[in-house]
Amino acid sequence: MSETRQSTGWNLLLPKISRQNKVLGSTYNAPCNYWIDVKIESLIISNDFITMKTKPGNFIKYAHCTDTVYYQFILKVIAIFFIGLVLIPVLAFSILDKEKTENKFKTEFRFKNYYDEAGNRKPNPEPQQIYGPVYSVGPLTVCAYLVKTELGLIMFDAGYDKDGSLIPDNIRKLGMNPKDVKKIFITHWHGDHSSGSARLSDISDTDILIHKDDLDIVKERVFTKDYMVPAKDRIVPLEDGEIFNFGDVQVKVIHTPGQTPGEVVYLLTVSGPQGKCHALVAGDATAMKSTVEEIEPNKFHGIVQAYEKTVGILKSLEFDLYLGGHPHQVFKEMREDGNPFVTREQWHRMVDNRNQQKIDFLVKHPEYINY
User: Fold this and answer.
1) 169 partner at 20 to 30 Å CA-CA among 37, 179, 265, 303?
2) Closest among 70, 60, 23, 25 to 40, alpha carbons compared
3) pTM given for the model
């Protein structure tokens, strides 16, 4: 029983064969490592052999091989086919992703090293536009972002309280008024990101927004000074998935616990010179504390399981502009040049590396696995 399968136009490799092959009417024994490139016109399959009829003008007219070789051949073709299905889209996506982020969006802003070539600590940077309505207004080692919208100014993280009037002054240097800040979004309760919000909230008389799971902690452990008491009443809890619209700017809240129980990232949609851009205000969501000294004051029930879920969430996010919690997240872990427009590959590499730090920590300290 035979069947003919039309495969016109396919270029295939005939695998190595040890039996005799009928080539242009003569007998030819193929070496064990020999491959023959054929363009198939038809494929005839029977119980004993297969016959491949090639396109006219090709070197090979007919080729015969046993069932065993036939199945090896088919398996190799299938394997090559499926490898191609996987590799081609991955390579294409990688090239397009890199081209999209590096060629489409332009910025003069760079996240810079904290020390000069002589090893001296640099001063706090001047405020600077990053892209479109997004500005950097924070101190040297901690990031704080100002976004200008149709409905007023909004802030993301507010640095240290010890920096005093640094952020309000930086807003003024940009020709804007800190009194026009309408919302202060906080990524997590740690003092280097949240404590400066009390002072800014007093100036602007506006709400401080933080995830509900970090709300009590920030009140009890950060807002401890007398002049911070009024700001406690302006702290508003956030829920996962909330969306805020400020006219031309949209903000989405995504709960990413691990660093703290209420850590969040904010996914923004903004417009700039090269068009609409998706920005991720990431805080410190990419890392779980990975030393005993750091994790003890920050641990919470289910911390490991929460962070493992967060890793999956972070890797699923699609964005163009990375606005992290600290400059070194870019210049040390993703792009040496400090450019905030990162590729998906660079983003995944940082998340994977930080997840590996967690894994290494748990190998040394398994007592935290089921905390």
Assistant:
1) 265
2) 60
3) 0.74
